[in-house]
């Protein structure tokens, strides 16, 4: 079998060192330089999430619908999936190092284009360049670091490639192993998503009711029943459902207590400031209130005052802690170890393409899914998908801690092939105490 030949030398002597080699500064410098792509990915994700709160308010970016918001965010993982596929052939033809340099260059150029963007199309172009660079980096960096790392620290170095900002997987990956860390992290993510869905459900139930405006209640000086989306917005039952719709906002008397109000269509040119009709159509005063007959009205197009508003923020921190401790880095570590050399680039490219394609799907549909299935419904759906992933991990993912890349192939052999290796072990030319005496006990 090819698998046996790649592990045992021609003389039958195990090629694994009897002692762990001492590592100099060059190994860590090499890995650290290669993993900058992982840092850039995390940085870009954080920046775009915060930037999308303000980009729609930029004069050159208006009007920016939910579709455009989803497109700006999702275009990067979309092109990352394409970059991952091309990165496989490029890595085999030109070498890992040159592809990493190309990815870094695309990152830099894309960041400059995004920085100077004065309209939506230029911003989209910059996000595309960043996406292609991200696809190259996410596909080639784990391979490069995995191939260049000794078995006993490979998990640490590859983990660093994807999550240089968390210490938990770096400390535990070689102690607990990939499988345990992945399953524990997945279970934590599942719990966080269920709690997140529950928190949004509580917010929905606690948000203020909508006072429906009937046809005989119209005050023609304030209400324009023919305004775009008026009837649609007026049909919602509470504030949370109202503000989840990008076309509507909630207008109520000012105050942080739970007060019934009106669900009104937004003013497309000033969606965060006023409605298209009703009590919140007037210009705001210096404190941001709309005043009518001495009564102050508050306009909200993205939030509602409830007793539970802070809970999703706290749970998001919990979710990120569980996600970054294993669910984020471990698939990349395992991806760098599972495949034989002749298929490694192709297999990692396919799996990376799948990852970014699903990222694209989530980014492109989150706002629409939240509107159609409600916010809490969306998170319950994500929790269901995570549960399926947990079952798959428990049943099919083997432990690769301490195995060389060649030895990992044995984990996926049939029992018949493993039996051949056991018979090979019994031959006298193999020294006692070699790798099979310890590793094959698991098989």
From TrEMBL:
Keywords of the record: Membrane, Transmembrane, Transmembrane helix, Transport
Membrane topology recorded in Swiss-Prot or TrEMBL: Multi-pass membrane protein
InterPro entries, per the entry: MFS_dom, MFS_sugar_transport-like, MFS_trans_sf, Myo-inositol_Transporter, Sugar/inositol_transpt, Sugar_transporter_CS
Coiled-coil stretches noted in the UniProt entry, renumbered to this chain: none
Originating organism: Acrobeloides nanus
GO MF, any single term: myo-inositol:proton symporter activity
Major site of localization recorded for this protein: membrane
Localisation per UniProt entry: Membrane
Protein name: Major facilitator superfamily (MFS) profile domain-containing protein
Protein family (similarity comment): Belongs to the major facilitator superfamily. Sugar transporter (TC 2.A.1.1) family.
Domain Major facilitator superfamily (MFS) profile: 30-401
Membrane spanning stretches: 25-55, 67-87, 99-118, 124-144, 151-168, 180-203, 308-328, 348-369, 376-397
GO CC terms of this entry: apical plasma membrane
Gene3D superfamilies listed in its UniProt record: MFS general substrate transporter like domains
Statement: the UniProt record of this protein carries the keyword Membrane: yes
